[in-house]
Design brief:
- The protein has 2 domains: 176 residues, 3-Layer(bba) Sandwich (FAD/NAD(P)-binding domain); 134 residues, 2-Layer Sandwich (D-Amino Acid Oxidase, Chain A, domain 2).
- The protein is built from 8 helices and 19 strands.
- Strands 1, 4, 5, 6, 7, 13, 14, 15, 16 and 17 form a 10-stranded mixed sheet that branches.
- Strand 18 and strand 19 form a beta hairpin.
- It starts with a strand and ends in a 16-residue tail after the last helix.
């Protein structure tokens, strides 16, 4: 039987599922030092970092359950190095720092965050198929070496090997981080803000008004609230993913563009770009195209069953780069949005950047690369 929904929730313990629904904060006359709006991985990481840094009382609010949006539908892959072929250097540095932060969280959060370290192999038709140069992190593999790692490919291919990348179950990471937060209110939507000069004096919510010292919006796409003068272009892109039934095929980590080995002898595949498709429903033709792609690359996967199938919407800005900035014109509000395909990877380092910014009052030197005003 195929489950329509991501595998990640079914991998959680009862306690972890309960944490995703935390609603223990009293919003009546709430005056937190830091209010975080948005309970995806970015918002939870930001709230945890602010709390850990001793920035006073921290309150997190989320319209649904924690991780209910793009976070819960993500692959959870933490692979910064392949981005060196597509992203400008400041963003690759951000992504590398993101993986290092995940390693720090794995060591410091009680029980860890579920980080799994694994290698990335990119199948290439010829050496240099990704770039004209060979970055030091990359080992080029000849067809024989690739065949040893991934036996049974439909045709000989060279490849690129990058060691020590990672993955997480994104909902497990959210639950483990959220367990240490002081105040969480799920099922609470932000509705409007009230300004006093250049400051947010109050945030109206479906459960009452909150008067915060500082506000961080981590809502995937830029927040649209009455009273908030914010206009940043963004859209979202639908993507499909699936997890196979148990298979005898064992991959040596992430094999792009084929699949990723996960627990229980299953494979995670997909991550499509279904431009213009705004339906929340899974499309059987897209799932069929993913399974056909598996068999085309590795014939032994022909006829493999699908255990889980799902889709999600990934937020992005026109230049495919995130925003990490103060809300323009507002002295006590910050936002992060549009992380597109690197939201899970970038979440902990984005949290570190914003926490330091709130604490010290000064932007990081790279702030121009992530500016909310770069779109004109």
């Amino acid at each position: 039987m195929t489950v329509t929904g991501s595998i990640w929730r079914d991998q959680l313990s009862t306690a972890e599922r309960a944490t995703l629904a935390r609603a223990d904060a009293d919003l009546a006359r709430a005056t937190p030092d830091v209010l975080v709006v948005g309970g995806g991985i970015a918002g939870v990481c930001i709230a945890a970092a602010c709390h850990q840094a001793g920035l006073g009382s921290v309150l997190l609010i989320e319209t649904g359950q924690l991780g209910a949006g793009a976070t819960g539908g993500a692959t959870g892959l933490l692979v910064p190095e392949p981005h060196q072929w597509s992203d400008p250097e400041p963003f690759v540095d951000l992504e590398r720092a993101g993986l290092e932060r995940w390693r720090e969280l794995e060591a410091s959060v009680p029980g860890g965050v579920g980080l799994v370290e694994l290698d990335w192999i990119g199948l290439a038709p010829h050496e240099g198929g990704y770039a004209a140069h060979q970055p030091r992190e990359v080992e080029w593999l000849n067809p024989g070496q690739v065949e040893e790692l991934v036996p049974g490919l439909a045709r000989p291919m060279e490849g690129a090997l990058i060691r020590r990348q990672g993955r997480v179950n994104p909902l497990r990471a959210v639950a483990r981080l959220a367990a240490g937060l002081p105040a969480v209110a799920t099922g609470v939507a932000a509705t409007h803000v009230e300004l006093d000069g250049d400051r947010i004096a109050a945030v109206g919510t479906s459960a009452g008004e909150v008067s915060p010292g500082a506000v961080v919006f981590a809502t995937g796409r830029p927040p649209v609230l009455d009273g908030l003068p914010l206009h940043i272009p963004s859209d979202r892109v639908k993507g499909h993913l699936l997890v196979t039934e148990k298979t005898d095929v064992t991959l040596p980590g992430i094999v792009a563009p084929l699949a990723t080995q996960i627990e229980n002898s299953q494979l995670l595949a997909g991550g499509t770009f279904d431009l213009g498709d705004e339906s929340p429903s899974v499309r059987p033709d897209v799932i069929d195209s993913i399974t056909a792609g598996l068999a085309a690359v590795l014939p032994s996967l022909a006829g493999v069953g699908v255990a889980y199938q799902w889709c999600c919407f990934r937020p992005r800005h026109p230049d495919r780069r995130p925003v990490i900035d103060k809300v323009p014109g507002i002295a006590n509000a910050w936002l992060t949005s549009g992380h597109f395909r690197t939201g899970i990877l970038n979440a902990p380092v984005t949290a570190a950047v914003l926490t330091q910014w709130i604490s010290a009052g000064n932007p990081p030197v790279e702030a121009g690369s992530w500016s909310a005003t770069r779109f004109g």
